[in-house]
Every structure is written in structure tokens, then in C-alpha cells.
Amino acid sequence: MHGDLKILTGSSNPELAKAICNHLGCQLTPAVCETFSDGEIRIEIGANVRGDDVFVVQSTCAPVNYNLMQLCLMLDALKRASVGRVTAVVPYYGYARQDRKVVPRAPISAKVVADFLTTAGMHRLVTVDLHAGQIQGFFNTPVDNLYAAPVILDYLRDIQGDIVMVSPDAGGVERARAFAKRLNAGLAIIDKRRDQPNQAQAMHVIGDVKGKVAVVVDDMIDTAGTMVAAARVLMENGAKEVMACATHPVLSGPAIERLNNSAFSKVLVTDTVPLGDKLEHCDKITVLSIASLLARSIHNIHTESSVSVLFV
């Protein structure tokens, strides 16, 4: 076993870090995370961490580059303070959608971020619902890619009515199928295609949603365009009610306005990304906490117990 357990946090998601500490029965280790007048970041660890087992909680959400740089500087500060082991707990891994080259002369940004974290001094990564599971292969260190599904499923089990899980595109079928299997529910898929160039994208529902509670499931909601379009076509195909659930509420650009004007009765998300005042502008959003899931993973890693038990 490594040294004492310590939890640090940057400025991206301190409330989640505090909730994790509450589950673990410990206090946050103090750290200074400030910005100089010229925009540079100042980091200072406020306690002795020599030989300790330290976990840094920091989502690389908006402002992405600031939070990523802050995390790298915290990792470097810990390394220079002779930490025993440092694990980066990154509930939302920014740049995850840039995991391959889709055009010539483009970077693989998710790989660059992995190199940043490793070079800065990270020994292990804990994250939640990576956009592409293959990103784990970008690291030469252990990666624990946890799933928020158990937290969301606990909520969905209390819903009254006949549920059908819906994938908003072909790429998310495996995720929707896993939810449907756990809930003993039906499965439907939204098929999007353009029959001819310059024509509007047609959306078709594969599966029976008539008279049912359709739950659209995805790993994240960014601008909400795909989700809202899926809700509309599901209602047109006779769904009794349409809900959405996603792990990461990125909610950039017109997302809040789109959700407010959508057919969704409820939008379930987790606290991997802090919503701040966005919650005040959309009463359809319900936030479920993954603090207990992350706390259990931290405890198991610290005690050298199995993390795989969290996937059952």
C-alpha cells in the first residue's frame, strides 16, 4: 500500500471533490489555484504530500484549456513534492472526440492530452464514460474508465410505464442496448440519412415507440441538436413521453434554449461537468451525482482492491 490518502481539486469541479471526500470521510487537502494578472496560473500545494497516495479531481471541461493546464501544473507540483503516487480523477475527459484523424494534417488531440498528463507526472487515470473507449490505449499507465450507467439506471427503474431505450444514432446502439438489457426494456434506433446531396437530413425510427416512454441515451449532450431532433421524431412516431439521459452535460452554445423548447419532459445528467447557473435556466434538467462511484473507485485503488467490481 502507498502512503496516506489525500484528495486535491482544481477549480473545475470543487463541489464534486467535496462530495467525494464526504463519502470517504476525509478532508480536501488545501491547494492554491489562482490566476496572475497576465493570465498565467499559479499552483501551490498547501500540505506535505511526501510519499502519499494523492488523487487530483479535475474535469477538463470548459474552459477546457485552462482546466487542462491547471491539472498538468498540479501534477507537476505533486511530482516535485515527492508524492508517492498520483492519480488524476478526470470525470470528463476533454478533447475525447478528437481521437483519430478524420482529415489530412490534423492532430489526434486526445492522444496529445494523454501525453501532457503522463509527462506532468500522472501515474494513473480515473475517468467516466470516455467518448471512445480506445483512448485508454493512448496511455502507458493504468486507466480506469468507469460507467455512470448504474447511477442513471437507479433513477430510470422508478419510472412508471413501458420504457424503450433509444440510441440517437447508429454509433450509440451498444450503449442503448446495455441500458435496455438492464431495464428489461425495448430498444429503438434513430436512423439519420441524406438520400440526395443538399437535401435535409431525414430521420427514421427503427423500433416500436408508440405509446411508450422513450428514453434517448448518449454519453454527452453538447449543443443538443441531435438529442432535440431525436425527441421530435419520437413524438411524431407516437411516443407517449420522451426523456433524455447522458453522463456529461457539456451544454454549449444554444443547448439550454434547445432543451427548453424541446419535447423532452426530463433530461437526466450527472455532475461530471458542473452546470452552475445553467440549472436556473432549464427546469427540465435533473442532476445525478457520481460522487459515490468515484469515491468507491478511489478507495479500491488506494487499498489495492479490485476496481472491476464497480462494473458489475
How would you summarize this macromolecular structure in one to three sentences?
D-ribose 5-phosphate binds at residues 194, 218, 222-226. With 312 residues, the protein is α/β, with parallel strands linked by helices. It is built from eight helices and 14 strands.
Topology of helices and strands:
Elements: E1 5-9, H1 14-24, E2 31-35, E3 41-45, E4 53-57, H2 64-80, E5 85-90, H3 109-120, E6 124-128, E7 143-146, H4 149-156, E8 163-167, H5 173-183, E9 186-193, E10 202-206, E11 213-221, H6 225-236, E12 241-249, H7 255-260, E13 264-270, E14 285-288, H8 291-302
Parallel strand pairs: 1-4, 4-5, 5-6, 6-7, 8-9, 8-11, 11-12, 12-13, 13-14
Antiparallel strand pairs: 2-3, 9-10
Protein name: Ribose-phosphate pyrophosphokinase
Enzyme class: transferase
Family: Belongs to the ribose-phosphate pyrophosphokinase family. Class I subfamily.
Plain-language structure description:
- This protein is α/β, with parallel strands linked by helices.
- It has two domains: 5-146, Rossmann fold; 149-288, Rossmann fold, CATH 3.40.50.2020.
- Helix content is 29%, strand content 26%.
- The chain contains eight helices and 14 strands.
- The strands form three sheets. It has a seven-stranded mixed beta sheet, with helices on both faces. Strands 1-4-5-6-7 form a five-stranded parallel beta sheet, with helices on both faces.
- Helix 6 links the parallel strand 11 (213-221) and strand 12.
Tell me the series of helices and strands, N- to C-terminal.
EHEEEHEHEEHEHEEEHEHEEH
Number of helices: 8
CATH architecture of the largest domain: 3-Layer(aba) Sandwich
Structural class: alpha/beta
By CATH reckoning, the class of the largest domain would read Alpha Beta
Backbone CA Rg: 21 Å
What's the total count of β strands? 14
Fold-level CATH name of the largest domain:
Rossmann fold
Shape: globular
Query: Percentage of helical residues?
Result: 25-40%
